[in-house]
Amino acid sequence: SYQVICEKYPSFRERSENVDLVVEISLQPWKVFKPDGVILFSDILTPLSGMNIPFDIVKGKGPVIFDPVHSASQVDEVREFIPEDSVPYVGEALTILRKEVRVDNKAAVLGFVGAPFTLASYVVEGGSSKHFSKIKRLAFSEPKVIFYHLTLSLRHNKLVTM
């Protein structure tokens, strides 16, 4: 069960960045209920691990960004997100899941990720936020830091934001 996996692997990131664990956790509900879709066990912040943005998911607190971005100079330290290089475990897990669910039926395999502005909000705020005051302040004081990178990421259909 998921609880047993959590006891053995207490770190959410360890569970969500290990191909075997991702596949096992993703398939648990499908094996029991056989719904018409399987959702990849992941987190919306997954791209950050490949962008030189250290973070963790802290039990009882949620996402914590260890070094929030507050200036244009910090943006230079962020790497471009290239999924194949940065988070290869996602593609590997999706491939395995597609093969697994085709055995019995044609269930859809669904993945998800944070949109560029969502990721930027977490990175600037340092985690979850009710009012998003830091990203608002940055957007008004240094608009190019936010909007240039968001626009670039949308134009190239890549994630190159904070």
TrEMBL record:
InterPro entries in the cross-refs: UROD/MetE-like_sf, Uroporphyrinogen_deCOase
Span of domain Uroporphyrinogen decarboxylase (URO-D): 110-126
Recorded superkingdom: Eukaryota
Any GO MF annotation of the entry: uroporphyrinogen decarboxylase activity
A Pfam match: URO-D
One GO BP: porphyrin-containing compound biosynthetic process
Coiled coil: none
The protein's name: Uroporphyrinogen decarboxylase chloroplastic-like
Organism: Trifolium pratense
